[in-house]
Design brief:
The protein is mainly β. The protein contains no helices and three strands. It starts with a strand and ends in a 22-residue tail after the last strand. Strands 2-1-3 form a three-stranded antiparallel beta sheet, with no helix packed on it. The protein has a domain of 40 residues: Rubrerythrin, domain 2, CATH 2.20.28. The protein is elongated, with a radius of gyration of 20 Å. A hairpin with a 5-residue loop joins strand 1 and strand 2.
């Protein structure tokens, strides 16, 4: 599911759209000024989270 990073060419406002579909022309409207002169790029989607170094899923006590 892509996150689209949008930039308004009229007022310079930058905003994101998280959509479960492809970006349509109707999605390219600036929420600040209402302009349809919006250019798009594809963002990273989900925010990365730190990897845990603890062994939370390792069984303890052995198997026997």
């Amino acid at each position: 599911m892509p996150t689209y990073e949008l930039h308004c060419k009229e007022c310079g406002h930058e905003f994101d759209r998280f959509l479960m579909r492809l970006l349509r022309e109707s999605d390219r409207v600036c929420p600040e000024c209402g302009s349809t002169r919006v250019e798009a790029g594809v963002g990273g989607g989900f925010a990365a989270r730190p990897v845990s170094t603890s062994a939370g899923c390792v069984p303890r006590g052995g198997f026997g």
